[in-house]
Amino acid sequence: MAHISTGGGGRRSVNEELNLVPFIDLMSVLITFLLITAVWTQINMIQMGSSFYGKRSDDTPQTPPPNADYVLKVEVKTTGYVLTAGKQVIALPKIADAYDDGGLGAQLQRIKQIYPEKTDSTLAVADDIPYEAMIKAMDTILIAGFSNINFATGAPP
Fold first, then answer.
1. Which residues of 114-127 are buried (b: 16+ CB within 10 A; e: fewer)?
2. d(CA 37, CA 138)
3. Nearest Cα to 67, choosing from 92, 85, 79?
4. 122: which residues sit within 8 A by CB, 6+ positions away?
5. Predicted confidence (pLDDT) per residue in 64-108, tens digit
6. What angle do CA 125, 129, 133 make, to 5 degrees?
7. DSSP state of 128
């Protein structure tokens, strides 16, 4: 126990004992909580700083993958899809207030026939787009054969 003693010129001496057990209990709980949550924050972290084609090790060749300069980007906007294939921009507006998944799939299949070895694409989603629209676009891209999907947020409306 801690002991406080105030000596000096006063009439009475004040001796108080502080109970440190609750403080030690609180600190042990806080330290345990800190250690447990520190592990979970590392697991949930998304690696946003990696390069477009993943991390490169020292033993991999320095040549870019095939068609690295050919950009394939699908933007999900409130007005519909915008497909950027290289320098070509294809707008696929909504049909009867629904996204044109069939048209997007057909365009992606056409691109896959031209560039069969290309597997990467970028999906850009505006902040106000429903989750279901993003998932449908993702499924359409995967069905077309582009298995490496990179995500971007904040696409202009």
1. ebeebbbbbbbbbe
2. 32
3. 85
4. 71, 72, 73, 74, 149, 150, 151, 152
5. 455 556 788 888 888 888 888 888 888 888 888 888 889 989 999
6. 85
7. T
The two structure tokens encoding residue 99: 């996204």
Is residue 154 a contact partner of residue 127, using CB atoms and an 8 Å limit?
yes
Tokens 């042990």 identify what position? 28
pLDDT tens track for 137-152: 889 988 988 888 888 7
The residues, ordered by sequence, that sit 6+ positions from 46 with a Cβ below 8 Å of its Cβ are: none
Task: Please report which residue ranges of the chain form alpha helices under DSSP H.
Answer: 21-43, 101-114, 131-143
Residue 133, class by beta-carbon neighbours within 10 Å (0-12 exposed, 13-18 middle, 19+ buried)? buried
